[in-house]
Design brief:
One of its GO terms (molecular function) is aspartate-tRNA ligase activity. This protein has four domains: 65 residues, no CATH class; 98 residues, Nucleic acid-binding proteins (OB fold (Dihydrolipoamide Acetyltransferase, E2P), Beta Barrel); 226 residues, BirA Bifunctional Protein, domain 2 (2-Layer Sandwich); 140 residues, Gyrase A, domain 2, CATH 3.30.1360. Helices cover 30% and strands 18% of the residues. The chain is α+β, with helices and mostly antiparallel strands and 689 residues long. The N and C termini lie far apart (71 Å). The strands form five sheets. Strands 7-10-11-22-21-20-17-12 form an eight-stranded mixed β-sheet, sandwiched between helices. The chain is globular, with a radius of gyration of 33 Å. Helix 7 packs across helix 9 and helix 7 packs across helix 20.
């Protein structure tokens, strides 16, 4: 019996255990009887007939140490399995002796001589029924093992009596248990019932109890392999190259994490992306590079944002943005055809200019599947209506329609009232430019409930929007020339209303995936009022690079605009990949000429000399005959979340950060700096005033 045999330990290993035991006991004492740990736990109360002599603290430590070490020695030697479960389920034969490893479930005793338990494999994907009888000698041993404990078992295969043919095919075998060896004990104080919700600080239990989370991590690994194959099998092939994580602080646009060094006053910075290294690789004769890069940005968390994240990063020399987009489309099609039930579109993905996306959908990452297009109507509206919805002088006023449900104005009114009264609606009511104007179309009322618009505007809306009984009409004002940034107030409201309509059952969810490229972004974006929250590139021009300061102008005319009175009119050769309203990634053609790159730093962005000096390494590489190049970064966490239909990237990351500022509740990071570490790294924490 493989459980009864004594472990084979070397003299050195035996000596090390004695040293540990003697250290804890402070004196030599006879070893305890090495029985099954679950039956001889030092924490158990004495059984009848046992001595109740009260032990001293030294004796208790000695007893605990001997028991713990004795049982640990039993668990470090155990037999290898004869099969993995997947192979076992397809190749097992009746009467066969097998050894399997896994986790035991809850035991069901049918009598004092017969019990059943499921054994789940180490991947927790497959399971098999164990049959334990007193005759086999395993009954008492199995009873001593708590549910969810890891074990190794030995037994004899027999065909399971099934209720029907479907069950016989799905779960054909059971194992008559001969021996069971517990490799660790699952404690009583941890609840593992199906409806128990584990907090984030117990992420290991969340993963263990949720097949959905484990499956997401397996899917993520498969997606990674598919991407790698697609890039390495292309011609010419991409080469996977790791770039450093200990970088330097450079003004790219986001807030960085700093890593102090033992050299006084010097620190590393964790990379916001491998952008500069991969451009240096283009100057180094590496024509096609990629990596699954870890990136770090000190930003507040959202459902689609983590302070550390993974991106599929790639760069191509002698390439244009169009070349890069074709490669990325190939990777996406490979992913969808391999892992998804429906393939991605076969032709080139749709391309939409940034200004079109902002004006028609109020977003630079629009979900166009559900319509609700925005149009401008301020030139049609009566002055008194405009004054009621906004304090702005000469505003732009825009409109969209949400189709009603079953032509029922009462249902539409109830839906919009509940939304505006909810926490999700509060930001729109509190808009400093004025709240939205809400109108429910009701054919029983004068002008179908659109009297404030006047006859001409109401007729225009009826014809242009195709409004019908029960529809919702929403108008919103914004300042002139405000189509900058990522979204408008009306664009945000459009998205929020549709999400609320689906969540509340007012509208059905829209199926499928719609991919598009949003292109022709402005090269530079004016500084916002809250720009102090974002470091930008540290220049004094009053604007910053929309993407990053290495992005090239799109055309020769855009190059000329760099020296004009308003460089913000220049268009960038930048492209974002969007699916269903989610930005999966972005890329651009880069400035490959060192003199032009320095001109953008110094003359356009007006960065100070000491900040330009931070890019000396990049300028040197570009100066060494760097070829034209372009690249892309695909947000891998977001990609997997979209493919699996998850609302948050936390659901596809093994150990995500939580909270607004990104804490890891399981390991309690970030953690306080010790005085010793502060001294080594020349740090001092100042109390806030």
């Amino acid at each position: 019996m493989f459980l009864a045999r004594a472990p084979r330990y070397s003299p050195q290993l035996r000596a090390s255990y004695l040293e540990i035991s003697n250290y804890l006991r402070r004196s030599r004492r006879p070893a305890l009887n090495r029985t099954f740990y679950a039956q001889s736990s030092p924490l158990r109360a004495p059984q009848s007939g046992q001595s109740t002599h009260e032990q001293s603290p030294v004796e208790k430590n000695a007893s605990t140490a001997s028991s713990v070490l004795a049982n640990f020695k039993k668990s470090i030697e155990f037999p290898s399995p004869t099969y993995d479960f997947e192979t076992f389920l397809t190749k097992a034969e009746p009467g066969q002796q097998v050894v399997l490893q896994g986790y035991v479930g809850n035991r069901r005793e049918l009598s004092s001589k017969l019990a059943f338990v499921r054994l789940t494999d180490p991947t927790m994907k497959y399971s098999v029924q164990l049959v334990s009888t007193k005759k086999s000698g395993s009954f008492a041993a199995l009873k001593a093992v708590r549910a969810h404990s890891p074990v190794v078992i030995k037994g004899t295969v027999q065909r399971k009596q099934a209720k029907d043919a479907e069950m016989a095919e799905k779960d054909p075998w059971e194992i008559v248990l001969d021996e069971v060896q517990a490799l660790n004990e699952f404690p009583k104080d941890i609840v593992m019932t199906g409806d128990h919700v584990h907090p984030p600080k117990h992420r290991h239990l969340q993963l263990r109890s949720s097949s959905e989370l484990r499956d997401a991590l397996r899917f993520r690994a498969e997606a990674r392999n598919v991407c790698r194959q697609a890039l390495e099998q292309s011609r010419p092939a991409f080469v996977e190259i790791e770039t450093p994580l200990l970088f330097k602080s450079t003004p790219e646009g986001a807030r960085e994490f700093l890593v102090p060094s033992r050299k006084r006053g010097l620190a590393y910075a964790l990379p916001q992306s491998p952008q500069q290294y991969k451009q240096i690789l283009m100057a180094s004769g590496i024509p096609r590079y990629y990596q699954f890069a870890r990136c770090f940005r000190d930003e507040d968390l959202r459902a689609d944002r983590q302070p550390e994240f993974t991106q599929l990063d790639l760069e191509m020399s002698f390439a244009s943005g169009t070349d890069v987009m074709e490669v990325v489309e190939g990777v996406i099609r490979r992913l969808w055809s391999t892992l998804m039930p429906e393939p991605a579109p076969s032709g080139p993905f749709r391309r939409m200019p940034y200004q079109t996306a902002m004006s028609r959908y109020g977003s630079d990452k629009p979900d166009t599947r559900y319509g609700m297009e925005i149009s401008r109507i301020d030139y049609l509206l009566p002055v008194d209506l405009v004054r009621k919805i906004t304090p702005l002088d000469n505003p732009v006023v825009e409109v969209f329609k949400l189709e009603g449900n079953d032509n029922d104005p009462a249902a539409t009114q109830e839906f919009i009232t509940n939304f505006l009264d909810s926490p999700e609606g509060a930001p729109f009511n509190e808009n400093s430019d004025g709240g939205p104007g809400i109108f429910v179309v009701d054919a029983r009322k004068p002008l179908s409930g659109l009297q404030p618009f006047g006859f001409e505007a109401a007729e225009h809306l009826e014809n242009s929007l195709g409004i019908e009984h029960g529809d919702l009409v929403v108008i919103q004002a914004r300042p002139q020339n405000s189509l900058t940034g990522g979204s408008t107030a009306l664009g945000n409201l459009r998205r929020a209303l549709h999400a609320a309509a689906v969540a509340g059952g007012f509208k059905p969810a829209v199926p499928g995936f719609e991919f598009m490229w949003v292109v022709d972004f402005p090269l530079f974006t004016p500084a916002a009022e809250d720009s102090a929250e974002e470091p930008g590139q540290g220049g004094a021009a009053g604007f910053s690079a929309t993407h990053h300061p290495f992005t090239a102008p799109k055309t020769a005319a855009d190059v000329d605009l760099l020296t004009s009175a308003d460089p913000t009119q220049a268009t960038a050769d930048h492209y974002d990949l969007v699916v269903n309203g989610v930005e999966l990634g972005g890329g651009s053609r880069r400035i490959h000429d060192a003199a032009v790159q320095e001109f953008v730093f110094r003359e356009v962005l007006r960065m100070p000399d000491h900040r330009i000096a931070d890019f000396a390494h990049l300028l040197d590489a570009l100066r060494a005959g760097c070829p034209p190049h372009a690249g892309f970064a695909l947000g891998f966490d977001r990609l997997v979340a979209v493919m699996l239909g998850r609302e948050s990237v936390r659901d596809v990351i093994a150990f995500p950060k939580m909270g607004k500022t990104g804490e890891d509740p399981m390991v309690k990071a970030p953690s306080p700096i010790s005085e010793e570490a502060a001294k080594i790294y020349h740090l001092a924490v100042k109390e806030s005033a």
